Amino acid sequence: LAIAAVAAAVIIPRLNQNKNASGAADYETAAVERRTVSSVLSSSGSLAPADSYTITSLLEGDIVSANFEEGDIIEKDTVLYVIDSSDASNSIETARLSLAQAQRNYQKKLESKNDLNVKASGAGTVLSLAVDVGDSVSAGQTVATLRDSGTMSITLPFLSDDAQNFYAGQNASVTLDGSFETLSGTVTKISTATSVLSGNRIVKNVTIEVHNPGGLSNSQLATASVGGAACAQSASFTYKSESTVIAKVSGEVARLNVSEGSIVSKNQTLLVLSSDTLDDEIQNASDAVRNAELSVNSQQDRVDSYTITSPIKGTIIDKAYKAGDTLESGKTLCTIYDLSYLTMTMSIDELDINQVAVGQDVTITADAAEGKTYQGKVTKVNIQGTTTNGVTTYPVTVQIDETEGLLPGMNVDAKILVEKRENVLTVPVAAVSRGNRVLVKADQTTEKTADKKTADDNSSSQTDKSQPAVSDLPEGYQYVDVVTGISDD
């Protein structure tokens, strides 16, 4: 349409102004022909690499190695620079020590939480409970007393000469004073020290354990014999164990699991404490561990950042630093281009953008590669337009795979093939007048055109008052209505 308008602006004034002597306008003739017509959208732009990356360091330090040069083709993750990281290594070691300390403290707090369950230190009978539900308990406070009365011990003096032949585990016979009841016992300990009784009797103490049938107490006296040898005198029984249960942490008694007189086993929970303070301490310890872990990760990332690798596969375009240089933070180290293909961005008018779609073919020419044509494809149609002076254009990305002779930054012209018609009837754009009318020789019109009939319902059969009057037409010519299609240059 734009081309037709320009042609009309040039041709029509000429037709109106260049009158011959008879008052008729001058005309140019052109042959109607069948040919291929292509509708294209054109734009210019500059080439860019498929991808580019400018490496900038956030660190400072001496560059230990930089084993690459400009023009090198490198793979992704290739080591480019190694920066001295001795200071960072010391920092990560300190962070790891802090983490280990925080973990130990957290573990201790968890163990303290387990200590809220106060457990029996051994098997026996609950002799007494010193606390009740709701009582406050301090760490180190006695909360219960346990007694193992199922086994009784008695320590008796035996003549030294007899005792030296005794051994632990040897059977013994224990006789109760008063009832003269005899109980079976076992030697558990023989003293190495001697003592002297009345009559200059040299004795050794021998400890014997017996099963309590139920009536023994620590007031009962008894004698014993071992291997036929009798003890030198009687003694009283003692309980095998009698212990106190101590709270390891502070808290409030939330629950009692036993009562006085209950028989308990070792490690059985006697009572449960609750402590909001301990819960807060555990949470704080857990937070401290997490903070220490983050510090270690941060320091590790910092150490890793002292080794700089390539984020993409590509070609080194420039190298700003070499081994031995001192690096400053924020400086550009090098630039990498991925030249596996090139791209360009076309600016397409808002009136034409709906004709563009991903996958369309694009023909590209460059002044730097005279006489050569490149093929590309539309890879992206961006719907975010830019408006300038009331005209909106949309960026369209084109990819060029075959790039021999092309370099990033070169200026190119691109044409998108929107539509193509082959073997169609064509006339010059300037020959189509307003109202879609064409001036043709009268003897070359068909009956159909002479009758002004068309196949298109949208065709106009009315006379366009802007066209020259019939008297101004050259002799033997007439206007006919036409149905227009696509146009090219």
| Cα shape | rod-shaped
How many helices? The count is 5
User: What level of helicity do the residues show?
Assistant: 10-25%
Largest sheet: 11 strands, antiparallel
Report low-confidence residues grouped into runs of 5 or more.
4-24, 448-468
The oligomeric state is single chain
Name the beta content range: 35-45%
Query: What value does the average pLDDT take?
Result: 86
Note the gap between the termini.
Answer: 10 Å
Structural class: alpha+beta
Radius of gyration: 54 Å
Give the number of DSSP strands.
Answer: 32
Brief write-up:
The protein is of the alpha+beta class and 489 residues long. It has helices at 2-17, 86-114, 160-163, 276-304, 447-450, and strands spanning 33-46, 48-56, 61-65, 73-74, 79-83, 117-119, 124-129, 136-137, 142-159, 171-176, 182-190, 195-197, 201-211, 221-226, 229-230, 235-236, 238-246, 251-256, 263-264, 269-274, 307-309, 314-319, 326-327, 332-349, 361-366, 373-381, 386-388, 391-400, 411-426, 432-433, 437-441, 477-481. 17% of the residues are buried.
Which descriptors would you attach to this protein?
489 residues, alpha+beta, 11-stranded antiparallel β-sheet, 10-stranded antiparallel β-sheet, 32 strands, 17% helix, 43% strand, rod-shaped
Secondary-structure blueprint:
Layout: H1 2-17, E1 33-46, E2 48-56, E3 61-65, E4 73-74, E5 79-83, H2 86-114, E6 117-119, E7 124-129, E8 136-137, E9 142-159, H3 160-163, E10 171-176, E11 182-190, E12 195-197, E13 201-211, E14 221-226, E15 229-230, E16 235-236, E17 238-246, E18 251-256, E19 263-264, E20 269-274, H4 276-304, E21 307-309, E22 314-319, E23 326-327, E24 332-349, E25 361-366, E26 373-381, E27 386-388, E28 391-400, E29 411-426, E30 432-433, E31 437-441, H5 447-450, E32 477-481
Antiparallel strand pairs: 1-29, 2-24, 3-5, 3-23, 4-22, 5-21, 6-20, 7-9, 7-19, 8-18, 9-13, 9-17, 10-11, 10-14, 11-13, 12-13, 14-15, 14-16, 18-20, 22-24, 24-28, 25-26, 25-29, 26-28, 27-28, 30-31, 31-32
